[in-house]
Amino acid sequence: MKPIYFLSDAHLGSWALEHRRMQERRLVRFLDSIKEKAAAVYLLGDMFDFWFEYKYVVPKGYTRFLGKLSELSDLGVEVHYFTGNHDIWAFNYLERECGVILHKQPITTELYGKVFFLAHGDGLGDPDKKFKLIRYLFHNRLCQWAFSTIHPRWGVWFGQTWAKHSRLKRPNGEEPPYMGEDRENLVRYTKSYIQYHPNVDYFIYGHRHIEIDLQLTKKARVVVLGDWISHFSYVVYDGQHLFLQQYIEGESQV
Predict the structure, then answer these.
(1) Which of 33, 20, 160 minimizes the C-alpha distance to 89?
(2) Inter-residue contact 31 to 66 (CB < 8 Å)
(3) Distances (CA, A) of 161 to 3, 15, 134, 165, 167
(4) Burial category of 214 from C-beta neighbours within 10 Å (exposed 0-12, middle 13-18, buried 19 and up)
(5) Is 145 buried (19+), middle (13-18) or exposed (0-12) by CB count in 10 A?
(6) Among 243, 250, 72, 49, residue whose Cα is nearest residue 157
(7) How many angstroms separate the CA atoms of 64 and 87, rounded?
(8) What are the pLDDT tens digits along the chain (254 aa)?
């Protein structure tokens, strides 16, 4: 029984990160280390800091990462890519060129006899009206078409600048620490969701950039993946046990 891996939030290409090339290489080395043993890899969103697919153009760079996704797919590893709030605008390029399975909404799926609810996590349980409005505009097809008419020279610059500003407006560019079960949007959302969907065993999210691992009920466990900026964390499920781990080169047993 081959293990299944989950990770998220690499924000590749972020102009707010000085070590972005090293970060991409580290991620690629991790994916390379699991390519012979993984049954599937689930990328739960925001793998790019900004990604917009024009009809004939995609953002430059990321060749190591895109090549590794293609290699995994060619080897028969299922690669599932969830769009997040930074890479909403993935349409069909990653599917056609890299062979990934693209998800634009949360999914519920059965893996080795357990039920998983998988999502990037943006907007789930978040009461912020401003964020909801921006999220609606970003998902609106008319708005997406209007943005696509902007020349990539300016469109990509605008997207990268917006993403950089979003990160740097936080103190030290870091995510707020864990706020407790009653204040964490994703935990509150999960508690509400399991009241009507008691069959789910594991809830796995990205987005929050911190590691959370909570057993909410005897059955339901919620995990937030952390990120691939400072935590380099991931989840591995071997069919019997689920572990939240960190990738430390030369030490991690993946």
Answers:
(1) 160
(2) no
(3) 38, 8, 16, 6, 10
(4) middle
(5) exposed
(6) 49
(7) 18
(8) 899 999 999 999 999 888 888 999 999 999 999 999 999 999 999 999 999 999 899 999 999 999 999 999 999 999 999 999 999 999 999 999 999 999 999 999 999 999 999 999 998 988 888 888 888 888 899 999 999 999 989 988 988 898 888 777 766 667 888 888 889 999 999 999 999 999 999 999 999 999 999 999 999 999 999 999 999 999 999 999 999 999 987 655 55
> Residue 195: which residues within 8 A CB-CB, separation 6 or more?
none
One-letter identity of residue 232? F
Burial readout 154-182 (b: 16 or more C-beta within 10 A, e: otherwise): ebbeebbeebbebbeeeeeeebeeeeeee
**Which residue from 125, 159, 124, 160 is spatially nearest to 144, judged by alpha carbons?**
159
pTM confidence score: 0.93
Provide the H-helix boundaries in the chain.
20-34, 63-74, 93-98, 129-139, 141-148, 152-168, 185-194
- In the chain, how long is the greatest CA-to-CA distance? 53
Q: Which amino acid is at 220?
A: A
